[in-house]
Write a structure and sequence with these properties.
By secondary structure, this protein is of the alpha/beta class. It has a single domain, classed as Ribokinase (UDP-N-acetylmuramoyl-L-alanine:D-glutamate ligase). Strands 5-4-1-8-9-10-11-12-13 form a 9-stranded mixed β-sheet, with helices on both faces. A 4-stranded mixed β-sheet has the order 3-2-6-7.
């Protein structure tokens, strides 16, 4: 019997408008795409749905506009069994919207109009934390105001709740305005790790240097995702590369969100995530393997939230003996 996992996700909720195209358009270029789909998205909502499908009890904190997109977002999250008491409605703003082009290899280019996401404030975080009990962790991203993210980290730290921070999209790191103190695990990709540390991540060696720097900046654990090359998991005791799985990618949208959510669920479920000390490296690597499997399943499907797998699907994928990209 799997242990109970209670997670609060604080972040963005968008409506994604996805066009499948042969290649990502260059500036000034118009391409005729093959298909269009409108689905629920936003990094925060994606991670909330991913965690819920993986068996977590999820409390979502965010903000939508008083419009059709906002109404639809609330319904989609509620239908996933997510507690939306912390999802506020901003009557003066529009709901977040993302325009996404996906090429034949599954890579994407995304433009976001954040709208009401930028109204998520410290007061919303405090209200939600006062209501929630026995949280295993709080998951954060950076599609809401950074002062709110920073406040949430401090508030979680004062309550002894571990924080998993996905510092996405990439932003210019300013130590005077933003700190990784109180972050149990930070999960940047190569670009985000570079923005946080000033170290250009090109391979496992530079990823290790960036991860070490993230730990120096206050994070207890760091996981740098490397796309098809896997992920580098690091603590103050060492680092290990966890290989990615080999699949036929259709759409990489939300793969990073799926990875972060699955990592958080796995760590909380194992009882190893703490706001006070690092996870044992072997346990962190095992959580990364589960997260990599979840992300691998997600990229075989089109769309953000529609692509996110259930726990049963991830376990079945792992049981099938999938190949990693380094297998011969």
């Amino acid at each position: 019997m799997e242990s109970s996992v209670r997670i609060m996700v604080i972040g963005s909720a968008n409506t994604d408008m996805v066009v499948k195209v042969p290649t990502i358009p260059r500036p000034g270029e118009t391409l005729l795409g093959g298909s269009f789909v409108m689905v629920a998205g936003g990094k925060g909502a994606n991670q909330a749905v991913a965690a819920a499908r993986l068996g977590a009890d999820v409390f979502f904190v965010g903000c939508v506009g008083d419009d059709l997109f906002g109404t639809r977002t609330r319904q989609v999250l509620a239908d996933e069994g997510i507690n939306i008491d912390g999802l506020q409605v901003d009557p003066g703003g529009h709901s977040g919207v993302a325009l996404i082009a996906v090429d034949a290899s599954g890579q994407n280019a995304i433009a976001v109009a954040p709208g009401a996401n930028m109204s998520v404030a410290a007061k919303h975080v405090d209200l939600a934390l006062d209501r929630a009990q026995d949280l295993g962790c709080i998951v954060l991203q950076c599609e809401i105001p950074l002062p709110t993210v920073a406040h949430a980290i401090r508030a979680a730290r004062s309550r002894g709740v571990p924080v998993v921070l996905n510092p996405a999209p990439a932003f210019s790191f300013q130590p005077s305005a933003f700190s990784l103190q109180g972050v149990a695990c930070v999960t940047p990709n190569e670009t985000e790790a570079g923005a946080l540390t000033g170290i250009e991540v090109q391979n496992a060696e530079t990823a290790r240097r960036a991860a070490d720097r993230l730990i120096e900046l206050g994070a207890l654990n760091a996981v740098v995702t490397l796309g098809h090359r896997g992920a580098l998991a690091a603590t103050s005791d060492g680092a290990v590369v966890v290989d990615a799985f080999s699949v036929d990618a259709v759409d990489a949208t939300a793969a990073g969100d799926c990875f972060t959510a699955a990592l958080a669920v796995s760590l909380v479920r194992s009882g190893t995530l703490s706001s006070e000390h690092a996870v044992e490296l072997t346990a962190l690597a095992e959580a990364c393997r589960f997260a990599s499997a979840a992300a691998a399943v997600s990229v075989t499907r089109l769309g953000a939230q529609p692509s996110l797998p259930t726990a049963q699907e991830v376990h079945a994928f792992l049981a099938s003996g999938p190949r990693t990209v380094t297998d011969s």
